[in-house]
Amino acid sequence: MPPVPPIAIIAESEKWFDASKLPLFVIAIVVLGVVVLLWLMSRRGSSFTPRQIPGLKAVEDAIGRATEMARPVLYTPGWGGDIQRPTTIASMNILSQVAEKTAQYDCTLIYPTHDPVIQSVAQEVVSESYARSGFADRYRQEDVRYVSSSQFGYAAAVEGIITRTQPAAIFLLGTFEAESLILAETGNTVGAIQIAGTDSTIQLAFFIVACDYTLIGEELFVASGYLSGDKAILASVRAQDMLKIALAAFLLIAMVWVTFAPNSGWWKF
Amino acid sequence: MSRRVAQIVCAVFGVLMFLLFFSGHPTAKAITLAITTQYWQVIAAFALIVGAVSFVRVNVKAIQRRQDIPFRAIGLLGMISMPVLAIGWGIGGSSPFLWVFENIQAPMQSTVFALLAFFVASASLRGFRARSIPAAILLVSAVVMLLSRSWFESTTSSFLLTASDWLRNYPSMAARRAILIGIGLGSLTTSLRLIVGIERTWLGGSR
Amino acid sequence: MKKLESRHWAFLGLAIVVIGTMLLNLEPDLDVSPDTIRMHAFIDSLPAGSIILVSFDHEASALPEIKPLATAFLRHAFGKGLRPVGIALMAEGTAVGYRLMEQVAAEYHKQYGIDYAFLGYQPQYIAAILSLGESVKQTFPRDYVGHPYDSLPLLREVHKLSDFGAVISIADGNMVTHWVEYGRARFNVTVAAFVTAVMVTSYDPYVSSGQLRAMVGGLRGAAEYEKLIGIGGAGRRGMLAQAASHLYVLALILVGNVIYFTTRSRKGRG
Amino acid sequence: MDFGTIIAGLLTLAILTFLYRDNPIYKLAEYLLVGVAVGYALVIAWKSAMVDLLFTPLFGQGDWSLLLPLILGLMMFGRFHARTSFISRVPLAVLIGSGAGAAVPAMLGPRILTQVSGSVTPLVGTDGLPNWSGLIVIVGVLSTLAYFFFSREHRGSLGVASKVGTWFLMIFFGTTFGYTVMSRMSTFIGRAEFLLTDFLHLTR
Predict the structure, then answer these.
(1) pLDDT, tens digit, for every residue of D71-107?
(2) Alpha-carbon distance B190 to A218, whole Å?
(3) Which member of B125, C177, C188, C203 has the lowest number of beta carbons within 10 Å of its beta carbon?
């Protein structure tokens, strides 16, 4: 058996700036530049509308339906994330839009979570959204609740809330683990419209099968820009698309290169 | 005012963590470790106390409104008993704390997990209908996968195994890669917006 | 009584299929895969009396797969006269690991502190592995039950990670990676793993590179291991139920489509 | 049979009654589970974070650098009252900021660049024949990325590419579903094993 090479952690240089990470640093700075530049441009009025995402058109209808039926809306970010995860922040952005609408329609919004830190941030986001739509008095802090950190304690609690409050619309947006299908199938039995979205690739399959609309991966990040018209987010969406083109070009060039020069390795990261 | 302070703190820690990644110096590594373990865990632990207090508040309020009294009481009792048992008898080998975990919490947790098997069944009955071409593709690849893993190896036809392995290793992996790249891009720009302060929703901030 | 809906029938069917096949008490014969044979041979190759580190790196919810795997392995280890020292790098693995070792040790009349020991849980898994590499005693000054480290004769024989004959990680997540990347790479200890079925593909590259000495995965792996050690267990009993449940899910997909197409064609005509 | 097994068995059955429908027995078990789980998390956080990471090194070993996390933690208590809750924004900002800062290189490196360069293979194999599997991967990655292209409506060639992308996505969803069914089923088999063997003694 050949000796196993030592892991990167030992081989790494102990200098203040690790030169082997320079390419990553440069790319990060360039991406930052593109995002900020596009944002500044959009503030000067260059407008841009992203393509349609079916699940997002349904958001407003779903809240309207809940209002007509006098049933609540349930929004939960899943058990897998914490506030340090960008996905959770993207979910907060959508929450802020949903909360504005439930405030306007005077529809109850229930937000159970497994993480007290997420609870704190969600309380800020929801209360501010209610204030922004001019209905600060309709906000009830205990509707944004912490329901235990354990995965299946959280699942059991949300399952219970769904069967007892019979929400007409359920938003499952964030990082989910095995609890995904438990929540989605329970939502199904009460006949709710379900809009799901996650960055957990394995759980996507379960949402696709069980929910009415599913935001796949990146769509979750784009959604809040689409709903709010927020210029910073829309600028990011454009930056993401430009990066995609760059990555595709990189991939194609590297493939052709390696076909003719099988020993090259400049494309390796 | 407090929003401004919070935003500056967010930016400072964001830039700091970003830069620390590019350093190999032992001090830089020690700071990274301190932030991700001490800061993150300690703040989360204090937040948990806040969460537990809000849990108690919600339940006590409900009891005052005479809603679901027995259920709320059992929940509160469960919550309070754990710290009490831990303080009284410790959390070691044969402590009552561990007894509650093993005979009450763990079996219920794994049973909620086991409900998944049933929900897989109901979702299979309802969700796999060949309504359209994409739906048919979903159906076929799921069936191939399931069939290839249903019998004992000696009786499973090797064609099915080869087909399922190929599906998983090539087309399915390609799609997963693209999903990961997309999520990476979305997370990347979201994080950058947070660091430079053009993402303020988390502060409840206006746009 | 509330009317039963289609999902209720689907639930009921699953319960009947699984419980029915389990009540048959059949232990089907099965082919043992090379992965399992490799693990069995590796454990067999350790000289009797070797002290091995068994790390319970999983959550309580993974028990249905983890317990049969860990039980089969511990039976083999105790039966061969190996002396396992247990630890946990995930909080929920602590109680589970302690109980399992206690139970299987009792089957083989092994004595705590001489034939086996359990050190407990350390958070910060990477730091814990690195620290074990320097000194076991400093990482776990007391065992799980509270005995001082030096009071147990077994523990007096091991000082650092490299003194163990092998590290066996019983895991439902990424912990095996850390054992390989820190434990093996830095302290040159042999690592082998028992993992849940979903994790198998993630660790295949480590097995083929030799960084992971052997790996057994899922209920199926447990069943195969039970066959090799000649003691029936939950793995083999579960195998038939597992296969039956798959066929049942396939049948549900079929029924769902038949219903869909018949109602659609009826609507088309009407 | 010991008392613990009886309790565990009854609670297992109580949770399973939810499959028929919501009922007071399930509800009782659910509230008990949630309560106990909150209490358990508190105890573990107290021991592993407060005592082991904070109080012991701070007061026992005089590691004063831990004063800062202690103060940040205490600021979370601002949330106990609506008028002081603004104080908690600072520790939240620490978490969100440092999380974002850590995410940038993590996303760019392993998530984006490694995934892209992992897809690079020669178009022609060593035997001179086209590398079909490699080509499938490249078509899959590019068409799925086209599906995630948001700047333009999906018409024309972009529409065709994104349609092919959805097929690849469906293959992915189908295979993950099929693959995960196995471990989902074993969760129930495990509980059934407990009920039949330890609780009811119907099998050995």
Answers:
(1) 999 999 999 988 888 899 999 999 999 999 999 988 8
(2) 11
(3) C188
> Among B185, D153, B187, B186, which residue's Cα sits nearest to residue A246?
B185
Q: What is the pLDDT of residues A36-63, one digit of tens each?
A: 999 888 888 766 777 888 888 899 899 9
Residue reference for tokens 């095995």: A178
What is d(CA C159, CA C136) in angstroms, rounded to the nearest whole number? 6
User: Which residue spans of chain A are classified as CATH 3.40.50?
Assistant: 54-228
Which subunits sit against B, judged by 3+ Cβ pairs under 8 A? A, C, D
C121 sits in which H/E element: strand C117-121
User: How many domains would you assign to chain B?
Assistant: 1
Q: Are A102 and A109 in contact (CB under 8 A)?
A: yes
Least Cα separation, residue A5 to chain D (angstroms): 19
Residue B122 within any structural domain of the chain = no
pLDDT at residue A155, rounded to an integer: 96
- The tens digit of pLDDT for each residue in A77-115 reads 999 888 989 999 999 999 999 999 999 999 999 999 999
- In A, minimum Cα distance to C62 occurs at A178
CATH of domain A54-228: 3.40.50
- Among residues A6, B119, B149, the alpha carbon closest in space to that of D184 is found at B119
Domain ranges of chain C: 1-27+234-270, 33-232
Tally the domains of chain D.
1
B123 inside domain: no
B104–D36 CB contact, under 8 Å: yes
- What is the domain extent for residue B145? 131-206
The pTM of this model reads 0.89
Query: Domain span at residue D186?
Result: 131-204
Cα angle A243, A82, A131 (rounded to 5 degrees) comes to 90
Question: What CA–CA distance (Å, rounded) separates A102 from C66?
Answer: 45
> Does some domain include residue B110?
no
C194 SS3 class: strand
D142 inside domain: yes
Beta bridge partners of residue A73, listed in sequence order: A109, A169
Phi, psi of A80 (to 5 degrees): -80, -15
Q: Do C61 and A9 touch (CB under 8 A)?
A: no
Give me A162's structure tokens: 């769904």
Question: Which helix (H) or strand (E) covers residue A194, if one does?
Answer: strand A193-198
Q: How far apart are CA B182 and CA D106, in angstroms?
A: 14
Q: Give residue-wise pLDDT tens across range D158-201.
A: 999 999 999 999 999 999 898 888 778 888 988 898 899 889 88
Measured CA to CA, the distance from residue A202 to residue A204 in angstroms comes to 6
Domain C33-232 in this protein, CATH class:
alpha beta
Q: How far is D11 from chain A (nearest CA, A)?
A: 13
